[in-house]
Amino acid sequence: MNKSQGIAAPYALLAGAFYVTDGIWGFFSPITFGVLSTNLLHTIIHAAMGLLGIYAARTTFARLWCMSVGMIVLPVGVLYFVPAVNGLLVSLFNLNQTVSIMNIVLGVVSLVVAQLSPKTNTM
Predict the structure, then answer these.
(1) How far is CA 116 from the centre of its chain?
(2) What is the pLDDT of residue 118?
(3) For the segment 45-70, what is each residue's pLDDT rounded down to a tens digit?
């Protein structure tokens, strides 16, 4: 883990491991962790996001990964509760309310972790 990333690196590793586990599990079952619904597209996205999180935790990109994940999963979680968009999200990703609440929580936490972590000059 890259210690110069502050709390972003351990968070990216932990959240990345969760997403990889969810992604791999989703290849074999439409329900993961007993409550999270998924489908093939959702599974592929989570597996890729998780692998990127594990990679980011070992480099200088953990803060960027946290910010990116937060900016992706938070809106998806919130949009689930918008009736006009709900059907599209359910048909694309097989989301359920539990997944959406988890997305909101992980999105907010990811953004907070990114803000609390030191900025690094990677480019």
Answers:
(1) 18
(2) 85
(3) 999 999 999 999 999 999 999 999 99
Write out the two tokens for 41: 């597209």
Provide φ and ψ at 47, rounded to 5°.
-60, -45
For residue 17, give every residue at least 6 positions away whose Cβ sits within 8 Å of its Cβ, in sequence order, or none.
Answer: 50, 53, 54
The neighbouring-strand residues paired with 31 are 37
- Please check the confidence at residue 6 and state whether its pLDDT lies above 90: no
CB of 54 closer than 8 Å to CB of 16: yes
Using alpha carbons, list the distances in angstroms from residue 27 to 22, 24, 46, 54, 94: 9, 5, 11, 20, 13
CA 46 centroid distance within chain = 7
98: helix, strand or coil: helix
What are the residue boundaries of the structural domains of the chain, listed by start? 7-114
Residues 114, 5: contact at Cβ < 8 Å? no
